[in-house]
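Sample A.
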Amino acid sequence: MSEVDAPREKDTGSRPRHANIAEARRRAAIVKRYVAIERPDVEIDDAFAAEIGLSVDSLIRMATAWRRLGEAKFLQGSGYRPSELDRIEALEALERGVDLDEVPASRRPEIRKRLRAIRQYLRIEQPDSTDVSKAADRLGMTSHQFRKMVRIWIMFRSAVAVPGAYAAKRPRRKNTQTTDMIAMFIRRALEELGDDARGDAVHARTVELCGEAGIRPPALSTTYERLRSLRSKERARGEGGMTPI
């Protein structure tokens, strides 16, 4: 049995299996909404990452897994462990060659290096802790980081999913005009539905208005944030009218 799919040591502090399943389903619902967006921008990435409780890089890896596998059990947090067959197929994918087109050009040399290290490791029939340590040292990683990277490749088999494929968080580039229009649509939706309208109803109406205007709708978390701001300003004024955002 290889190092990547060896049984875990007993962890008395781990969550029960039903909790893992519930968390996987929660994350699956979020990832399904995310992958449905054709071209998510930085703001959308940040909003979904915050909602799922992970980094943007982790969100992108989960989205990659969902597009390829489409099952909640494969998502990070589900407790799923790759099988020996998964390991063999992952090695075969490396032997065939990997498409790096979606990896930023500046990151490709490092990702090639990491993929070569993973391939060399997976070729070992029965790797032990020494093999892990040597491979990790060559990449400047800890053994834990290397094992995690190998598991990620086995599950996702995509260059963009490999840790390090993206540089540190990308700078924000906001379209002020679009942001102002979204704020206006949220106000309009609230006015149409009433001050006591549920947040999800306001969001659904905002999405419709954005669709009519031909602009990308906000993430659900963005709508909720705007609603909180609107309502807090209204309470501060002590009046019935709306306060400009």
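Sample B, a different protein:
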Amino acid sequence: MLVGAIASLPAVAGAERALATTAAETSDERAVRLANELSEAMNGFMTPAGGTPHWVAHIGPSMHPDPVWFSQDAGSATDPLADTIAEYNAKLAEFSAIPVEQFVSSEVEEDIVMATYGPASDRLCYATPPATSLRGVAEAIRYAIDQRAFIDIAAERVVKSALAYLERRYRV
């Protein structure tokens, strides 16, 4: 017993020094120190070996109902559904910019559709890619709203409310 007690004395002294150092920190200094430690830990958070981290930690005061949460970096993470919707929107804008005089027949119009937004539209309709991030979920909701796909005004408002939450909370 005595050997164990003596062996633990250096550990107790080390813990006492750590507590004294922590007690000397201001709240601001502690927050910055812990944020830097978290930043280092985030380099490997939910990231395969050799992969690029795409997650962001969000930390708030502990008195908040949900003070710690994580999200994907909307700017860097790829998402098959969001990328297809973005392609569709860009190609639809190209189609919309074509002068009406060029649509001389339904065959020409079909060729123009297939040269612009048609392939992306077909993927969305017949081979819908998965959403793999909150950005993909938000883009899918925006797509449904933009398409005026709702026949029930209450359903549309509920979905818009959900999108507003995602935008506010996760900045997607």
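Observation for Sample B: Strands lie at 55-59, 68-72.
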